[in-house]
Design brief:
Elements lengths: L2 H28 L16 H25 L7 H29 L1 H4 L3 H20 L7 H6 L2 H17 L21 H32 L1
Helix pairs in contact: 1-2, 1-5, 2-3, 2-5, 3-5, 3-8, 5-8, 7-8
Length: 221
């Protein structure tokens, strides 16, 4: 990767990390006017927030590694740092698709893109995907990495379902089903989780294939 491209990637990574925090603050202090927002640490119950924080952490690690490459400390970004960025990008990719295909039609797109949600639901996930697919170097990402990209969804899904089974669905602002996944009944929750895991896997597959193909096209071109 050229020096110029590394600088662009670093700038994007730092921007993503900063804007995740800014957007989260917008949700916290604007809670009540925005859908899927909660006061204080209560906002951390949302996969949107957690996946974007994972992206922020991965972006910072990736940026630091890129800086070390520019300094000549390491020849390239360690594979682990790239895989972490890939896993986080897949997670926010799920956030993006869930909003576009499920939550948007359910609650209305204007509410989904209001305030900080515009960044967490749309701008930052798209930016992260474009960066990884278009600007990043090709890496040998395989099935094991693709399965690793599903882990954040799996862990969150287990916690989400367990909370509903233990504490009940609830109603209104006290509902434990803030994403509306029990609309088809509690007995369908395992199916909903299985679909989310499959979608996460397919998003990860699409991202790593795009990363490889676009990078090879740049080389051949």
């Amino acid at each position: 990767m050229s020096r110029k491209k590394r600088l662009v990637v670093i700038a994007i990574d730092v921007f993503i990390a900063v804007m995740v925090v800014v957007a989260w603050a917008m949700l916290v202090f604007g809670a009540g006017s925005e859908r899927l927002a909660a006061n204080g640490l209560g906002s951390l119950k949302y996969f949107t927030v957690l996946s974007n924080f994972l992206l922020a952490a991965a972006s910072l690690v990736h940026a630091i590694c890129q800086v070390r490459c520019l300094q000549g400390a390491v020849p390239d970004v360690p594979r682990a740092a790239h895989v972490l960025k890939y896993v986080a990008t897949t997670a926010v990719g799920l956030t993006f698709l869930t909003v576009m295909l499920f939550l948007g039609p359910l609650f209305g797109y204007p509410l989904m893109f209001e305030g900080g949600n515009l960044w967490l639901h749309l701008a930052l996930p798209v930016l992260a995907i474009v960066e990884l697919c278009v600007l990043d170097s090709p890496y040998e990402l395989g099935l094991r990495d693709n399965l690793a990209a599903v882990v954040p969804t799996l862990l969150y899904g287990i916690g989400y379902v367990a909370n509903i089974l233990i504490n009940g669905v609830g109603e209104g602002h006290a509902s434990n089903d803030w994403y509306g996944f029990t609309l088809w009944g509690l007995d369908k929750m395992p199916l909903v989780l299985a679909i989310m895991l499959l979608v996460s896997f397919l998003i990860g597959l699409a991202i790593r294939m795009a990363n490889k193909r676009i990078a090879l096209r740049r080389v051949s071109g």
